Amino acid sequence: MDCRSSLLRGASLAAVVACLPLPAFAQAQAPAQPAAEAPATLEPQAPAQTDAAARDIVVTGSRIATRGFTAPTPTTMISAQDIAQNAQPNIFNTIAQLPSLQGSTGTQVNTFSTSSGQQGLSSFSLRGVGAIRTLTLLDGQRVVGANVTGVPDVSLFPQLLVQRVDVVNGGASASYGSDAVGGVVNFITDTRFTGIKGNLQGGITTYGDNKQVLAQLAVGQSFFDGRLHVVASGEYAHDEGVDGGDFGLKMAGGRTWFHQTSMINRNILNDGSPQYLIRNYTQSNTYTKYGLITGGPLQGTAFDQSGRPFQFQYGSNGVPTRATGGGVAGCFGGSCVGGDLSGNIDVGRSLQSALQRVGGYSRVGFDIAPDNELYFTVNVGQVKTNNQPVNGMNKPGLTIRCDNAFLPGSITQACNNAPLAPGADPNAPRTFQFGTSNAALGNTRVYTNRRQYRFVAGAKGRVPVAGTEWSYDIYGEHGTNYTNVDVNNILLNGRFNNAIDAISVGGQIVCRDPVARASGCQPLNIFGGNPSAQSLSYVMPDNGPYQRTRQTQDVLSINFSGAPLDLWAGPLSIAFGGEFRHEFYKVTADPYGAGSANTPYNSAYPADPLLNTSGNGNWYAGTYKNGHGAYSVKEGFFEANLPILNSDALGHANLNGAARITDYSTSGTVWAWKIGGTWALPIDGVRIRAVTSRDVRAPNLSELFAAPVTQTLPGTLNPFTGETVVAVQNAIGNTALKPEIARNTTAGITLSNPKWLPGLSVSFDWYKLKIEHVISSLGANDIIQLCFQKLVLSTCSATNLSDPTGPYFINAQAFNLASYDTEGFDIEASYRWQRPLGLPGNFTVRALATHVMKFVTDTGLPGNVPVDSAGDNTGNTPSWKWLAIQSYDNDSFSLMLQERWFSDGTFGNKYIVCQAGSCPVSDNNHPTIDNNFYPGRFYMDVGGSYNLTKNITAYAKIDNMFDVDPADSTIFNNPTLYDQLGRTYRAGVRFKL
C-alpha cells in the first residue's frame, strides 16, 4: 500500500506523517491503512508519538476521534509538502488557490479601501459566501478575530510548523459552532517536531517590484525520556507590495493592461439603445489633474502644473455646454471617451498592499501518563500593511469666486466680463464650477498594524472507562488582537473649503473667512501644482485619522469521544462536549472623526470652529468612530456514528449525526444539526457519502455594535406627513439581529486506490447551500419606504418619522432580510505512478475543480428580483474554477507544473445584451448593456527543487510563467480571481539539522 492511498484512506497520524513529503492534495475518505515506507526527502520525519494524537487523526469534519471512523463531509487535506512545493511567501496563498475557496481576501484585496481596516487581512471564503461564513481554526481551536467582523488573519499563524490543512467543503456548525456555514479551514501543527529546520526565500516580479523576503526557523526537542516536548518557531516576512502608478494610464513597473475601462450609465431607458455601455479610455469631465472649470462661460478651461490655463481636450468629440451647471454635449453624463486622460485617478490604487509580518510560536507539552498530555501554547504575531487607495483626492463640484486671489489675471477678467445667466442676480458674487483631483496635494496612504497575543492551556489524552477507551480534549484560550489604523496625507474638508477661498488683503493673500483666518487658515492654491508648505500642513495636518481597536476572545471547551458499545456492524462511536465563549471589542477614534462630543480635543487635535463637532464629514476619508460591544456564547453538542453494515456482500456503511444547542447572549437559543453517512460498496475502492445539515452564523461584533456614524439629511421626504424635513441618519449596529440559518447538503461518490489501478483517486461531490435571514444593510430611504408601505415592519423600529413631534432620526442598520441559494459540484482526481517508465521516483498528477451552477442572491426587498451571480466574474463565483498539478520527484530533485484556470463570464447576469435600435426598455431588474463578456484566465506555474546535500535543498518557482495580464477592464478587475502582478520569480533554500 503506498503513502498516497494511506492519505486518501486517511486515519492514522503515523501514515499522514510518513506521507507528508508527497505533493498531493488528499481527499479524506476512508479508514486508515498501514503506511508504506516513506521515500527519502528533505522534510524531517516526526518521531513515534506517545500522546493521544499518535493513534488517530481527527479529520476536521467531525468531533469523533475513534479509529476507523469516516466522516461524510468532503474534506480536502493539504500536506506540508504541498505547501512547501508551492513556494509562496504566505501559506494563505497556497490554500486560497483551491477551487472551492471563492472570494478569499489577501494583500491584493481591499487596496481601494481607506476606512475598512481590512487591508492586507488574509482570510478564507468557502463557496463564495464570504469570510464571515467560513470558520478558520488552529489545531481545531478558535482564533481571536483580527477585525471586528470576527475573521482571523492567517498571516499570524505559525506557518513552518503546519503539518497539514483540512478544508471542509460543507457546513459544520453542529460540530464546531457558529460561522461554519460555508465550511471550515483547520490548520494542524506538528506538536512533536524534533530537530531544527528552516526556510529562506526571496522573490520579485518580472517588473522589478514586490520584492519579497521570507525567513523561517523551527526547533523541537524532547526531555525526560520523551515526556516533556518543546517546539518553537519564528518567522519574518516582508512583501514590498506594488504601489499605484501615476495619473492617467501609467501603471506601476511599466505594466500596460490598464485601459480606464468604465461601465457608462446613459440614464436613458427607452430609446432603443442600451442603458449601459462598456468603454475603454474613459475620462471624467468633472475634474482634471490640476483643475478644470466645469460650468459657466469659461467651461473647458483647465490648468497645468504651473497654473497656466489651457483648453481641455474632451473625448467623444465633446463640446462643453457652458451652462451654469455644466455638462458636455456628445459625452455620456460625466464621462467622455478618449481625449485628455491625464487626470484619471484609478491607476493610483495599490495593486498589492505592502506587508511585513513577524511571528513567534511555542508549545510545551508534558505527558502526565502514557497517552495523556498537559500543554501550553503561546502565539504572538504582528502584521503591518500599507496601501495607497487612489491617486489624489478628487474634488468635483467646487464653487470658485472670480475674485479668487490665486486665479490668473486673464481668467479673473474673463470671468468678470462674462455675460450673466438669464435671471441671475447682478449684485451676487461672480462664480464658476470647478473640479480637481488635487494631484498637487500628493497621495493618501493607509497604515494598518495588527498585533495578536494568544494563549492556550489544555489537556488531552485517553482514559479507560468501563472497559472502553475514551478520548478527552479540554482547553482554555485567551486571545487579544490590537489593530491600529492610521491614515496619512489626507484632507480636512472644512479647512480645505476655506483655504481655497482666498482673497488679497493689503497685498497679502489670505483666507476670505475671518473666522477661518482667526483659527489659523492658510490659503491654498488649487490652480496648478504649486501649493505652499504652510497650506499643505494646514489642510492635511500630520495627525490624520486613526482607529485603535482591541478585541478579546475567551474560550473554555471540553470534548469527549469514545465507543461505548459494540453493535452488529461495529462499535457505536459518540462525541459530546460543551463550550463557553466571550467576545469583546472596543474602538477609539481620533477626535476629528469621532467628534468632540465623544472624545475631548487635545494638543494634537486642537478645537477648530471650521469642523463638524459630530465628526461627520471632517476628513476626506477615514471617518472613524468610537464604539464597543460584547456577547457571550454557551453551547453543548452531541455526535454519534452508527455502523449499520459490515458485510463482504453488502459493503460497510455508517450513519453519522450531530446536534448542537447554542445560547447567544444577544440573540437567544438556536439549534444546529447534521445527519449523513458513508457506504463503502462491495465494489473495489468505491464509496458513496451524503450529509445534510442545519448550520448557523450569529451576528458578529460589527453587525451588533457598529461604531455609530451620524449624517444630517436636510431634504428628507417624510411620507407620513408629506413634508420635507431635516433628519439625522445614524449608522449603527443592530442588537436585535438574529442568527443566519443555512441548509447545507452534499452527496458524492469516491473511488480510492482500486486494485485494478493502484494510486488512483477520484471523487465527485454535489452541494447545495441555502442561507436564510442573511444579515444585510439598508439605506435610509429603503428603511423609510419599507416601513411606510408596511412591507417590512421590522424597519419601523429604525425611524421615528411617523411621530409628528420629532426631531427625526433614521437608524441605518443591518436587518435579517436577504438570502443566498447556491448549488454546484466539486471534482477531485489524482494518480500516483511509482517508478514511471522504470525511472526512480514518483510521478503524480491531480486536479481539483468546482462548478457553480447557480448563486442566487435575494435582497429581500420588495420589487427586487433575485439575481444569479454564477459566472459573474466581477464577483467571487465564476462558473468553473480548477487547479491542476503534475509533479515528478526522486531522491535528488523534483519538478512541478501547475495550472490555474477560471472560465469566461459576465459583468453581471442581470443585464440584457443588445445593440442600438434593438433594445427593450431597461429597468433596475433587467438593465440593458452593449457588452456583457468578461473573460476568464489561464495561468501556468513551474517549479522545482534540488537536494544539495541530505539536509539542504534549493528550490525555485515561477508563478504566472507566461505573464498573463488581467482582463481588459479596470474598475471591474477582481483580485480574488485575476493575477494583477504578472510573472513572479521565487527562489530559496530549505534546511534541517
Would you write up a description of this structure?
- The chain is mostly beta strands.
- The protein has a domain at 700-733 and 779-812.
- The chain is built from twelve helices and 46 strands.
- It has a 22-stranded antiparallel β-barrel. It has a five-stranded mixed β-sheet with strand order 1-2-4-5-3.
- A hairpin with a 2-residue loop joins strand 18 (354-369) and strand 19 (372-387).
- The longest helix has 9 residues, at 409-417.
- It is globular.
- The two termini are 30 Å apart.
Question: How would you characterize the largest beta sheet?
Answer: 22 strands, antiparallel, barrel
Number of helices: 12
Cα end-to-end separation: 30 Å
Q: Could you tell me the radius of gyration in angstroms?
A: 31 Å
Keywords:
five-stranded mixed sheet; mainly beta; 993 residues; 22-stranded antiparallel beta barrel; disordered N terminus; single chain
Question: How would you summarize the topology of this molecule?
Answer:
Elements: H1 3-9, H2 13-19, E1 25-28, E2 75-79, H3 80-86, H4 91-95, E3 134-138, E4 162-168, H5 173-176, E5 183-189, E6 195-205, E7 212-223, E8 228-239, E9 262-265, E10 276-279, E11 282-284, E12 292-295, E13 301-303, E14 309-311, E15 319-320, E16 328-329, E17 335-337, E18 354-369, E19 372-387, E20 395-401, H6 409-417, E21 431-436, E22 445-465, E23 468-488, H7 493-499, E24 502-505, E25 508-511, H8 514-518, H9 533-539, E26 546-567, E27 570-589, H10 591-594, E28 627-647, E29 651-664, E30 668-680, E31 686-697, H11 701-705, E32 709-718, E33 723-731, E34 740-752, E35 760-777, H12 780-788, E36 808-812, E37 814-834, E38 842-858, E39 867-868, E40 880-889, E41 893-902, E42 912-913, E43 928-929, E44 937-947, E45 952-959, E46 984-992
Helix pairs in contact: 1-2
